[in-house]
Amino acid sequence: MSAAENRPAAFHVVRGDPDPHELAALTAVLLGLARQPAAEPAPPPRPAWRRPRRAHHPGAGSWHR
User: Fold this and answer.
1) Tell me, what's the pLDDT at 21?
2) How crowded is residue 26: how many other Cβ atoms within 10 Å of its Cβ?
3) C-alpha distances in angstroms, 45 versus 41, 42, 49, 55?
4) Contacts of 61 (CB under 8 A, 6+ apart)
5) CA distances (Å), 18 to each of 13, 28, 31, 42, 48, in order?
6) Can you give the pLDDT of all 65 residues of the chain as single tens digits?
7) Is 60 left (phi over 0), alpha (psi -120 to 50) or beta?
8) Phi, psi angles (nearest 5°) of residue 29
9) Which residues does 10 contact at the CB level (< 8 Å), separation at least 6?
10) Which residues have CB under 8 Å from 26's CB, separation 6+?
11) Model-level pTM greater than 0.70?
12) Which residues have a Cβ under 8 Å from the Cβ of 30 and sit 6 or more positions away?
């Protein structure tokens, strides 16, 4: 018995009868997906009340009011 025979199966075929080429293609896709680095989570959205709609630029002499 080899070491490969002692490992649990990576996936099981539930329906159909895939040929060896189809199983090889599926295995390649699954291995490729498993090797991709995890995507960084998106930063949480900032609350709308903290987001200025536009920058505040007072006009000339507005401090006199």
Assistant:
1) 95
2) 14
3) 12, 9, 12, 20
4) none
5) 8, 15, 18, 38, 52
6) 566 667 788 788 899 999 999 999 999 998 888 887 877 888 888 776 665 666 666 777 776 65
7) beta
8) -65, -45
9) 27, 30
10) 11, 18
11) no
12) 10, 11
Residue 41 burial by Cβ neighbours in a 10 Å radius (0-12, 13-18, 19+): exposed
Nearest of 1, 5, 14, 9 to residue 27 by alpha carbon: 9
User: Strands, DSSP E only, in 1-65?
Assistant: none
Query: Phi, psi at residue 23, to the nearest 5°?
Result: -65, -35
CA atoms of 42 and 31, how far apart (whole Å)? 25
pLDDT attached to residue 65: 54
At 23, which amino acid appears?
L
